[in-house]
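User: Reviewer 2 asked us to show a designed sequence for the structure in our supplementary figure. I'm pasting the structure tokens here. Could you produce the per-position amino acids so we can include them in the response letter?
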């Protein structure tokens, strides 16, 4: 297995990268080439001021075996290698490798990092690993074999709803009071004195204006307004454009009388919806537009055969009221 250190994303073929993601241990939108390469352009919307790309690939007989998208920075009081995409805006991260190749890829990766001096005095501090990822067990085994320290902890919950039938079947599974609330709010919107319209953005020519409309709703939340600084605005715009170009952006609005009252950004990827962010127009709170739009999202997912709605990171109460069941993303720290 031949390992190569890359100092730029352009030296790896995007199609080869994404093919490996799709065959790999964690096939999520956040591991794809277009997402991580865009993330690197602004270092996560300004999350990292100092960062050195440590992008390592492994090939065997001309075949791409694995990718470790890493960067080096000072973190938590020491030099560290983190996964590109860390920490705040990428809900799931992992190595990019097939399950059958993971153990030997990981062994070769650490040999390469040690021999090249990249591991010297440096911890690997990897966030947002899915709790189901085989990387966790492989990291522990590799650390024990080398006599290194290994620590693993839960980082955040990632509630999700299993979908395997109609919208009515989904509603029948959640708590009775919540079921009635969703039906009541959606019915009230349908019967509202002004026309209420739910639509998904499909027109490429309108994409930029629709993204800006989404941001204008998003920043009505004071915390999100603080989050969406110039670098983050640029970061999220590039991510959403890339997702649209690759066919998995799901951007939807709820309009009341022709005025946008709520918006939601999801990724429609691998037959499930991944709930990324949302915004609400405070002028329409009496209509509960955020709840109505959530109902439409789940209804759409049911009607279009999606198998899951993933709320992704966060333990907000509404996720559980709508039937979310916890999974988790983990933090793993490896040090010599």
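Assistant: Here is a per-position design you can include in the supplement:
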């Amino acid at each position: 297995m031949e390992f190569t250190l890359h100092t730029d994303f352009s030296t790896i073929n995007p199609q080869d990268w994404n093919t490996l993601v799709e065959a790999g241990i964690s096939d999520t939108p956040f591991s794809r080439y277009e997402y991580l390469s865009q993330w690197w352009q602004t270092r996560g919307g300004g999350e990292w001021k100092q960062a050195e790309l440590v992008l390592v690939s492994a090939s065997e007989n001309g075949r791409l075996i694995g990718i470790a998208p890493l960067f080096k920075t000072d973190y938590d009081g020491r030099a560290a290698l983190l996964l590109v995409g860390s920490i705040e805006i990428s809900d799931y991260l992992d190595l990019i490798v097939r399950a059958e190749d993971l153990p030997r890829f990981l062994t070769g990766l650490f040999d390469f990092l040690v021999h090249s001096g990249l591991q010297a005095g440096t911890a690997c501090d990897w966030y947002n690993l899915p709790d189901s990822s085989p990387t966790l067990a492989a990291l522990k085994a590799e650390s024990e074999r080398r006599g290194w320290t290994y620590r693993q902890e839960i980082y955040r919950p990632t509630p999700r709803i299993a979908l395997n039938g109609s919208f009515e079947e989904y509603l029948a599974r959640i708590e009775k009071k919540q079921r009635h609330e969703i039906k009541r709010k959606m019915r009230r919107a349908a019967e509202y004195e002004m026309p209420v319209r739910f639509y998904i953005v499909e027109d490429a020519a309108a994409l930029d204006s629709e993204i800006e409309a989404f941001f204008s709703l998003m920043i009505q939340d004071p915390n999100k307004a603080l989050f969406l600084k110039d670098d983050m605005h640029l970061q999220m715009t590039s991510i959403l454009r890339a997702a649209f170009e690759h066919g998995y952006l799901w951007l939807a609005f709820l309009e009341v009388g022709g005025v946008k009252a709520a918006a939601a950004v999801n990724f429609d990827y691998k037959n499930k919806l991944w709930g990324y962010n949302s915004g609400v127009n405070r002028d329409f709170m009496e209509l509960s537009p955020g709840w109505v739009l959530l109902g439409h999202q789940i209804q759409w997912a049911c009607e279009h055969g999606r198998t899951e709605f993933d709320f992704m990171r966060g333990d907000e109460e509404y996720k559980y009221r709508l039937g979310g069941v916890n999974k988790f993303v983990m933090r793993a720290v490896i040090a010599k």
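For the response letter, you might also mention the following. Residues 160-310 form a domain with the Aminopeptidase fold (CATH 3.40.630.30). The radius of gyration is 21 Å.
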